[in-house]
Structures
1.
Amino acid sequence: MFGEKNKLQKIASSCLLAMTKRKYISYAIMALFFIGVIFVSAPKAKAAPAGDQVVINEICPKPDAGNAWIELYNPTNDNIDLSEYTIEDGTHKPKTLDGYSILAKEYFVIDKSSPNGFGFVLNTASAELVILKKDTLIIDQVSYGKWDDPVYDNNPDDDPPIPGQGKSLSRIPNGSDTNTDNIDFRVLTPTMGTENKLLPYSDPVIINEIVPQPADGSLNEYIELFNSGSGPVNLSSWQIDDISSGGSSPYTIPDGTMIAAGGYLSFYNSIDHISLNDSGDWARLIDPNGDEKSSINYTSSKRGQSYSKFAGSWQWTTTLTPNVENILTVETVVADLDAPILQTDIAGARNQPDGETVQIIGIVSVAPGKLSTQYFYIQDGNSGIQIYNYNKDFPTLTVGDQVQITGEMGSISNERRLKISQLSDIIILSTHPPPEPTKTTISQVGESFEGQYISVIGTVTKTSGSTFYIHGSGEIQISIREGTGIKKPTMHVGDKVQIAGILSQYGDSYRILPIIQSDVRIISSSGLPNSGSSVLYTLIISAIFSWITLAILPKRRRI
């Protein structure tokens, strides 16, 4: 960066010298054009040479106790002075590490609670970026949760997931760096100031039986595990889920849960809230290292039957055997035991438990393919909800269509959704004008507006890539999805904006998902530049224009 500044100064001096010698003004204009090219192409940050020393080794955004922290590791055989190092999140003021050092093969931990801790927030409900710099060089950077930023990271698909409560993002093996974060990092139990290791976990524990559609209600869905090994296994912090990167939120098995040798253990929907789709789904067992130990999938379920393992094959059986050996009983009589379907409005459907079958009517507020290929949204004037189909099987829908939908209630990351299994679950009733967004304030954003098309006004507090935050009577994240085709306007911290979009819940927080270009509108600009370097460039350009003006003006004659 300093080399670029020297070039600018030399070019500016040449311009001044040319003008004082009464050369052609075109020289100055050409020089000014050349400087403009440098401004446009000048990088915002330089990458460090390959193999540089210190790495970001572990990130813990939300520990069980204390404050968020970041761990650095020195894999070299030399002590390293950190005086010229800073750590930042790409948008807030960097935290200088002046006065600190890190010993060879040792760790350095910095957290938010210490007097000299970092000032930015490590996101726990959305994507985040952490950058380690030495002077202006990027030594290492780590992003998680699909961070999308053309300056620092334009490939969100190689990001590891967001660490949950009491978990950290840990570099495995300790100190290694392939420059691909989802290869280098795992979500593990924190190991502050010590080596990151993958602990060995037992292989004999498998999924042995699943019941996706019990006759006595969805709360009695269950997933059964079996320990085929010769010794007991501690299942603390193992997880059960129904599909990778989707479906229900994973269920973490409580600490102290043991499964005996040759023993069985069943987990019911009433406890784990894992909702297995009637139309087909997966069940998976994940160890604390994040490795899949066992899985099974099915294409459709049979009411009142279990899908059970017998020797090397899986079969449907009418005999349910939770916590005991499986028994194969082939179905001989087929009876229609379908429960009556609850017809209600969207608000009433949202109040039903996961697994309940309901029928609702609403207006399409965003069509399939805009925000996702697997879901869209409807609303009825009082409430809204996401409509989800794992197989992406939807009729041709347009915004404003009134539809009748029959499906099964479920949730994903605390957001309510109605899950359908086939095309015939959606009936188009009529067509209406597209719904207008409901105007509200950020402080009123909550469960009552979830799934609806809303509009708020606020001031930009943080912006990077396709994600930014605004503050009014509270703060909320705005996320622009690629499928919308929205071009994010140039914005700065302090700009006043009006934002419209679908209100979506993700974990413990809410976000607005704009649908069309007019949903993102700048009302007034703060007029402030993005960074100190922008101020420097502005001053240099102003000086050059002043020199050109002085050269063009005729000199006063002496009397």
2.
Amino acid sequence: MSRGPRRVVGALGALALAALLLPVASSTVAATPAPAGPAGPVSAGSTVVDVADTSGPHPEDPRAPASAVGAAAEGGVGTLTVNSSDPRDVPNTGLRTVITQWPYLVLPDDSAFQVSVEEVIGPAEAVFGIFENSTLTPVPFFAVFGNGTFAPITDRIWVSDRLEAGEAYDFRLELANGTNWTLSVNGEPFGGAGTAYSSYDFGASEATWAVSEAFAERAIYPGSPVAPGLLTVPLALGLDEDGAWYVPSPGIAVYDGTAGSQWGVSGSAQNGSLALGEVETGTSVADAANGTVLWSGSPTPAHLVLAVAPTPVRGNGAASVDVVLTDASGAALAGVPVVFNDSLGAAFAPSVATTAANGAASVEFLAPNVSAPETDSVTASVGVPGYAATNRTSVPLVPGTRLTVRLLLDPSGHLVDGSATLRVEVNSSDDAPAVDVAVTVSASGPVVVTADNLSTNLAGAAVTTLSATGPGEAVVVVRALGNGSWGEESLEVRTERPTVGAGEVAAVLAASVVLAAAAGVVSAARHRRGRRPGRTDRPARPPSGLP
């Protein structure tokens, strides 16, 4: 069935509630059913699973008419959408939403709630966002339906990506190449690096159906609405035009669902503290009549204060970056993602932070290595196009301090088809033990390292085991990384088969100091969403530009 030129929610055919609860055909990776409760589902050997094997309702096309539900006493379906009539909407090559995760909802059987955006691209309709049912805690999802048919093509749920209440998650579906589009969550491919679940070939290089995109919330419930009391969405709907994101304006609200079960929505037109494109929804928000304009006009002016301390920062050292975001009147702006970057290749942990109730947010600045004093430029900017705020500051960097690394192999000379203990001793420039310093051990050739990520104890020491896998030559490299300090030493190992008695072996060990120079990395934690933007441990980076 084809659609008319205008979006009319509920005018596209009828679907029974029973049909909505049936599993769809499996098209990705099968998984065992997930257990119920706040602990969340368990992935069966895969980061992404198909919803065909999870019990309860699955992510739905939000345009499926709610009026097709059975008797109201048996439950209902409600769909809240926000559309736009902005003439710039097409063609576009990107669709985006930023959703602040709601607290875990304890849902009855056969219930579900999802917050998403949707758009027709070629012959198919993309729907993605956050989904929860009675057995799944809130998780990211990516679904594709036939345009106008509602026939499910693929349903993908990222069950291992644990979302955290109160944190904002940035979903972006963008043209990658040809007719392939890619979905990311906080800058990471949907499903994790190395998976194919983030991409889909829509058969078109542009979205060209005017007014075909929308923000949507959909609830399936057996008794009363399962929408949360209050949900903040920093960016309900964003589109990409010539490589720049913008908010289509105006935003118009429409609700279609079981009578008496509506939940509300408000935008900047109803609440001046909200930005263009930002909405608040939930059962605690006043209902909006169909056709209500939620926002219109230009991005909301805001003021962003930025500070880095302490300074100067040693190469590969760390400092705190603090921001405060307020509106034009000085009132704090909460729940807004702020993005951080710099001019010299530093890292930020996390790279995106969401402002708290007082408008404040903080991240850790992980300085790049420098061999001479330099000045870095750190920039903070609001991560959604509904606000207009950015600020930058200069951060002085100085070379880091030197660590001395000493390697001791025990028993010496017996790494022949066997093993030996490697003791790493790390001292600071004043010969004091360097405590709680990260130590990495790597080996090439016929040598295996039992534990390759260590930390020094109070004596400045860390211990691992080297095992020979056969005759040959190997190089063992040890790096010590502290806050603003770095050191390295290598051990050249030649292993041989025994050439004498069974109890005797021959081996040649030669240790050489390769380098001990300033630099250091403090381990950084990511998010996530679980994975909030940027919450996995950040591996230490080898220094560059060493003196």
3.
Amino acid sequence: MSEFKPTLWRPGDWNALFGFGTNILVNMLVLTGLLRFVLQMPDELVFGRILPATGLMLFLSTTYYAWLAHRLAKKTGRNDVCALPSGISVPHMFVVVFVIMLPISGTTGDPVKGWEAGLTWVFVQSFVLMIGAFIAPVIRKITPRAALLGTLAGVSIAFISLRPALEMFMTPVIGITCFAIILLSWFGGVRYFKGIPAGLVAIAVGTAIAWISTAAGLNWGGMSVDKLGAAFSNFGFSVPIPAVGHVFSGFEFIGIILVTAIPFGIYDLVEAMDNVESASAAGDDFPTTKVLTADGAVSLVGCLMGNPFINAVYIGHPGWKAMGGGLGYSAATGITILVLAWLGILSIISALIPVVAIAPILLYIGMLIGSQAFQESPKSHAPAIVLALMPHLAAWGKLMIDNALGAAGTNAATVGYEAMGQVGILYEGLAVLGGGAILGGLVLGAIAAFVIERDFLKAAAFSLAGCLLTFFGFMHGESIGIGESPMVSAAYLVVTVWLLGCYRFADASAPVADIHDTTEVST
């Protein structure tokens, strides 16, 4: 019998390429804007060093995951294996810019110093990921799927879906039209002319509407002929140059860097583990240790070449698989981004395509991941999933308040927590519940799932873990340390004791199904 040879490219890879590729492209355009306009970095640094290094990292990441999917397809004899999506970690992109690079650039008056601090930040995180890769499989094994997918759904709804949805309704003629094109194809099964991918159709239609509106003086997509002409000045060939000296120069800021690098490295660890679980629920079981080790190693190579952004496995594997993606879309995306980054074409694309035409693709991914948590978990665990969402909604609410107050030149402390509470804004509650949201959602979801199953001993173990993680600032806090949120930590300890009491004294003979099916509520 001949050895099974997986199909390297399937028709569905075109859909996934345009969907995933535009997702990566949006993130690249956003980070380019942050580097140029927030950090005020010179174009020669952005287009000559950082973006080429970022392109190299993304190429290594996407081709590695295509290879890993190829191995799984050969091992299982299946042609429906879909590669894990990966790219720049979006939450970390903003953290490293606004928490590390911007303050250091401002303090020193030198954007290069900010860049060096960002490189060191990624350097530290890379080792957290690689070391944690050997612990993650154990965590994945003992944690209920409702907790893993529930906290992932929280990230998806709050930080993946909401912003694109808002952008769509701010420019509805483009946004809603493009969303309808995608919705009809990827959920409704509608095929467009000669099988043209829905993502490409949506972008083409959105771009056409934007430029027609510009010609008519309406300017719905913010397009400009002058901006497009100016974008060609950044066109040219640049390859990454080793930046090892810059990485170690950033160690002068190591005290500031460690405060966020370690907890966010753990965040990456848990998020990647959640995404591997999501892929497993969709039928593709990848080795957790190899995935996390690759994320750390690829990020390390990237930072040593000048890229200050961490690589991560993305939310969305079930979405790309549902639209027919396989092995080829991942590698093709990496090659495409490498070419765009090394030739300086990103600035031209950003001036040509309106972001609102791409936003519906991100909303689609958010919808799919949010629904997967409920579809792939036991029906009785639905309350646990809802609980796992809460920390992310709190984190999103706090972020919106902080950004709004910052734009007004003030902050929550200046306005006063009591004054905010009088108008229904419980800021302190948002800060505590939303701190370390991905770990918080996982722990709360796990406790609830085990309580639903009346496995009180395991629920107590997760409650004790919540107590320790909170005490050291990994949950329900904004920095690591000792005794960061002592009252919340004490509350978890009380819950642990109570659960142990239930394990020892509660009637374990009551059938779980009977408890879940009861329709009467005692008062």
4.
Amino acid sequence: MNKVTIRLNGKAVEVKKGVSLVELSKEEQKGYKSRIVAAKVNNELKELTHTIEEESEISFVDLTDDDGVRIYQRSLKFILIKAVKDLFPDREAAICHSISRGIFFEILRDGKQQLISEEVKAIEAKMWELIKQDVPFNKLVVPLEDAKQLLMEKGRYDRYLAIKYRTKSYVSMYTLDDIENYFYGYMVPSTGYIDKFKLEYYENGLIMILPNKENPTSLPDIKVPEKLFGIFTEYRNWGKILGVENVGDLNEIIMNDNIGDLIRISEALHEKKIGQIADKICFSTIPKRIILIAGPSSSGKTTFAHRLSIQLRVNGYVPIMVSLDDYFLNRENTPVDEFGEKDFEALEAVDVKLFNQHLNALLKGEEIEKPIYNFKMGKREEKGEKLRLEEGNILVIEGIHGLNPKLTSEVEDNSKFKIYVSAITSMKIDNHNRIPTTDSRKIRRITRDFQFRGVSAISTIDRWPSVRRGEEKNIFPYQEQADIMFNSSLIYELGVLRSLAEPVLKEITPEQSQYAEARRLIEFLSYFLPIETKDIPDNSIVKEFLGGSCFYR
């Protein structure tokens, strides 16, 4: 039979057997906000070159979908790499990290940065030339051992190490004209699918700016968060010193049985940084009475607050810890977002009026009864905790809105010390593929919520877009107002989290809509060799997500 019935965006359609998703997408494009770049077939992500051979449920993916943005980004990245190679054969484009709404690259010669602003214009022009030519991205399925040999021959040791311990028997590589590459995910069919991007020169490198899912038809304005950029740079340099710049380096340390040393050094770096922050607070020329700790979901804010409190005690202070979570409104009073969902990330979900009343009372030396929020019941308990701020006390306040001026509007700014905490991933998979910070935090949250909050991976995946919207609205706009930033990521943590997150993700079946995202995260984690927990200290930030923390007993 030459025909097959499919359900396309919920409608039954009869199509020719063997038809490609490219062909099917042409008729459907008018119903999408931006260019279709992929499809989900029976809840599994597929490239547009995929052909339909049997009855299937199909929905197309454009740039309003995270998967669509990732595919667009990979494809654009390959075009950038090709343009640099064509213009400067002795240089290499090396991805560094995300920056605001863009991605920062270095252009290297013999491992050293070499780029001027005029060259960025030339690279961008060359990329548009490749796009106009509509050059196809050709996929090659290469046996694993052949891929290893090819990468070694081409001097791509970073990429060889990334696949050295792979359990799959093959590697999917892509070619663009005369170069091949490996991007750990799908691509668009050809360069002509790219229609929006720009490059900007910054700090001897360049920022690649592309559309985002919120506004897929335009390019965002980029304002570089300089403090955050400095943290990324600091930790990349630290990775170089440790000899752990990518996943392959980490896996080699594990295989050589040196992971215990790396864990101890990573934890010592955290402790040193926290101690330095405590010193800065305590020896400030203007005495600080309130420490505000903010950051996005799963950044380890609570453990950081506990560890900072210990360092403050070493310096002679007696900290009083307050969590903003206890000032949540009762669940029935929580505001809803534009999608009609409970918006727990909104400042309006917090009883700001009561919080400020208590804050001012404490600063005057008065006693308050701080509420205690019962998350299972979704409301405050009848009796709270009595607190008074006395001589030698300092308030340590932790919560996602800590840097929002509205939260502490009734308190003088010079009495506050503001800290931004986030898990900023500086390690890469290889020179052309970064580890998104948001993926590290998502895996932390999946692990923690399943173990300690009775929340399934499906629920966490479903909730994550709302969490991200809340961060974009309520946290990231204030991050540069911090007096100091702390990177809570640990260079070894994904190897540890893999053992707990992987089984939970594998419970998601192809019949469930979250299957494609679960498969993506499982594939991502597969590049990290598992790491045992025996060398991790009980006060580690990662123990907040693994369990066994000394602060939660």
